[in-house]
Amino acid sequence: MSSRADTGTADTIDSRDDGATPARLRSLPSRLLSHTAMHAERLVNEGLAGADARKWHYAVLVALQESGPASQATLSRRAGIYRSDLVAVINELADRGHVERAPDPADRRRNVITITQQGRRHLHRLDKLLATIQDDLLAPLTQPERDQLTRLLTRLLDHHAPG
Q1: Angle (nearest 5°) at CA 42 between 39 and 47
Q2: Which of 18, 28, 64, 76 is the most exposed place for a label (fewest CB within 10 A)?
Q3: Where are the alpha helices (DSSP H) in 68-107?
Q4: Residue 47 in contact with residue 129, Cβ under 8 Å?
Q5: Of 14, 32, 34, which Cα lies nearest the Cα of 23?
Q6: pLDDT digit string (tens) for 58-93?
Q7: Which of 50, 48, 52, 44 is nearest to 137 (CA)?
Q8: Pairing mode, strands 107-115 and 70-71
Q9: Model's pTM, two decimal places?
Q10: Tens digit of pLDDT for each residue in 85-142?
């Protein structure tokens, strides 16, 4: 491990275990989850960047497509993005024609965000891209193992979720 002098945090040089890593470290579930999550994050970020998108773009488009138009506050909760960060994401999506922002007829002080047809097409492309990335990430697992992993990770996440 190399330490970062400026932040005091440690960073791994390589997440592969080639036998040099002590067995106790190789068998820690938290470490395995962390290394797998870092690899998954890298695959997703690189794949989305190649499609001129970011994970927050995807989250907003999915939330709008699944639940319909929403105020920025509601969309923030649905997509899991801080309101202050959401404004920039909406601006980027609106600039690309993927969402429209219009005053809420019930309260002109707030905006309602709606996915556009172009946004739906873009989301469809991103869904296909992410399916391929998931296949790459989970390549060594059979479909039943993938389903089991998803159930187990969901159970862990639900158990540790606040509230």
Answers
A1: 125
A2: 18
A3: 72-79, 83-95
A4: yes
A5: 32
A6: 999 999 999 999 999 999 999 999 999 999 999 999
A7: 44
A8: antiparallel
A9: 0.83
A10: 999 999 999 999 999 999 988 888 889 999 999 999 999 999 999 999 999 999 999 9
